[in-house]
Each structure stands twice: as C-alpha cells, then as structure tokens.
Specification:
It is built from 13 helices and eleven strands. With 348 residues, the protein is an alpha/beta fold. The chain is globular. The two termini are 32 Å apart.
C-alpha cells in the first residue's frame, strides 16, 4: 500500500492534536500518504477522526497506535511538587500521575473493524494474533523501530514494514523498552546509520523518519534504500495541522536548541529547550504517569501563550519547516527530491 503510492512521502502521525483529519486527508489526496495519530484519544474520538478523513477523501490513509508498556511504579511526590509549582503560575493544578493503557484494546478493535489500510505501532509491537487479524482485513502492519534489535523483534512478530526512526526525530522516541540509564532510552543512531544497521539485520521494506524537512533529505533516504520518507516536523506548520499558535511561533523564530527529555511525559522525546525542560533533566522514566501529571500544566501554558511550560516537540531541523498548505508542501518536496536525485546522478 505505502510502497505503491505515487509519491513516496508520509506525513508522520503526531499525537496531541497536531495530526488533524484535514492534514491527513490533504496529504493523501495529494498523492502521498497521511496518518492519523491515535495516541491519547478515546476510541470514540478516533472513530470521529477516521470518519472525518473519509468525508474529505477516498484516498488511503493510516492510523498509528501507542503500545502500552509494562507499568513502572515510582515515588513521584517530589516531581509532583515541581509540577504543582509550575502549574500554579497559570492557576492550574497538577494532574493525577496515573498509569493507563491509552485505550489500546478498544482502538485495536476499531482499526480492525474500520479496515484501516495501514496500521502502525509505536513504543512496541503487538502480538501475532493482532497482526494476523489486521492482515485478515487487508491492513498493512508497520512497526516503528530505533535499533536493529527492535527491527528483528518486529520482523519475527510479523511486521510488513519497518518505520526506522533516527535520533534527529521530533517528539517521542519509539524505543520498545525505555532504559532509564540512557537519555534517549536506548542506543542513538542517526537516520542514515539506523537504516544501514537495520537493513543488515532484516529484509523488510523500510520507511525512513527523523529530521527530514527538504526534498533533498527525501532523496537521500530513498537512495539509501527506503521505500518512503516520513516527515513530521515539516508538517507541523502546515495550514491544516493542529499545532498550537505558541509552538508555531517558536518554530518560526528558530532560536531554540532541541534536546531529548523525559520532563513532560516520562518517555524520551525531542523538543525545543525551554525552562521546564532545562529544569527537569532528571525526570524519571515513568510513562504515562508523568504525561498525565503535567497535562494540566501544559494545557494552561498553551492557553496563556507561555512557551516555557509547554512540550514543544520538534526535530533537529525544525527551523527549516515551511508554513504552507499540505498539498503545496508535498508538491515542493517532490520536486526538490527529483532535482536532488538528478544532480546526484550527474555527479556520479
């Protein structure tokens, strides 16, 4: 399905309201491939978004699910005190640091019932019974991986494709098991290196993700053997994206560094460095407890236009993102990729 698309570009699933039905539909309608992000949504909310995409376009699209990990219990009393102090700046309270499964079982049943063309998984991979059920209804199954070990595990469990995520990527790293001793939760590979080591481990089609914002980047990963390039940050500032105005402004300014952090969610994610990120580099590996704990603070900061308490997820090349309609961005990326491949061919 993905490999057969006219344009080998994918708009990455971006949870938290960024991946709107309008963005997903616009990308697919332009000949590329759009994804909905099911993370943090109820099954009913996801069903509404699926219906929203289908009301706009008949082109295929995908849905991404977060796989719940093993529950880790932590004493979060100290971290709660920090969050309470920060949230109070905007009259908010800390959330409940509770564990949940992100409505995962219900959303699995939904994507099967809806016969979603492509279903991808992040933070792990489902057992074979779920994979088999998805295949029975015609879905392609994609595993998001960061290391050759994860790639092998996903291949053995029946993945059809691998989305290989480099450390340059914005938002959450897709590590299966978050190692608290490592800032990135696991080994850190740049995207081209990740493609190479994964290709040496398994023989599955690869989608390349991480730091891609220009057509020349797309050309590079296609030349490296990927069947498609997945871009997230590049679509953050598209007209159809649900990105908050404050985050759009910070991306446009392009003045902040990016860094991997667990400060907002308890899982390593790359975002723009702000006060809360800088002050909480010792955040514990406690997902989704920290995500639930900081949610009211982040929401209040967004409403107040305060970038210092928001999770400003973005990849390393975020300053190069272009505020365009999604279809126009797809067109420009495609033309740039063609030019880059032609220039490379001439040089060789």
């Amino acid at each position: 399905m993905i490999a057969e698309r006219r344009i080998p570009l994918i708009a990455a699933p971006m949870a938290g309201g960024v991946s709107t039905p309008e963005l997903t539909a616009a990308v697919s309608a332009a000949g590329a491939f759009g994804f909905l992000a099911a993370g943090y949504l109820t099954a009913d909310a996801l069903a509404n978004q699926i219906a929203g995409v289908r009301a706009i376009t008949s082109e295929p699209f995908g849905v991404n699910l977060f796989v719940p990990g093993k529950r880790r219990d932590h004493d979060l009393s100290d971290y709660r005190t920090r969050v309470e102090a920060a949230a109070a700046r905007h009259g908010a309270e800390a959330g409940s640091p509770s564990w949940d499964d992100d409505n995962y079982p219900a959303k699995v049943e939904l994507v099967i019932a809806e016969r979603i063309p492509v279903v991808s998984f992040t933070f792990g991979f489902p057992d074979r019974s779920i994979v088999d059920r998805l295949r029975e209804v015609g879905s392609q199954v994609v595993a998001t991986v960061t290391t050759p070990q994860e790639a092998r595990a996903a291949a053995d469990a029946g993945a059809d494709l691998l989305c290989v995520q480099g450390m340059e990527a914005g938002g959450h790293r897709a590590v299966f098991n978050d190692d608290p001793a490592l800032p990135g939760g696991g080994s850190l590979f740049g995207l081209l290196a990740a493609i190479r080591v994964v290709q040496a481990e398994v023989d599955l089609p690869i989608i390349a993700a991480g730091g891609l914002v220009h057509g020349a980047d797309v050309a590079a990963v296609l030349s490296a053997g990927a069947v498609a390039a997945q871009l997230g940050t590049a679509f953050l500032v598209c007209d159809e994206a649900g990105t908050q105005p404050t985050q759009r402004a910070e991306i446009a300014a392009g003045q902040r560094e990016t860094e991997l952090t667990r400060a907002f969610s308890g899982r390593p994610a790359r975002g723009l460095v702000n006060r809360f990120l800088a002050d909480n580099g010792d955040a514990p590996a406690a997902y989704p407890q920290l995500n639930n704990l900081t949610k009211p603070m982040r929401g209040a900061a967004g409403k107040a236009g305060d970038p210092e308490l928001m999770s400003l997820w973005a990849g390393q090349t975020y300053a190069q993102a272009r505020p365009l309609p999604a279809a126009e961005l797809v067109r420009r990326l495609t033309e740039e990729a063609r030019q880059a491949l032609q220039q490379a061919s001439i040089r060789l």
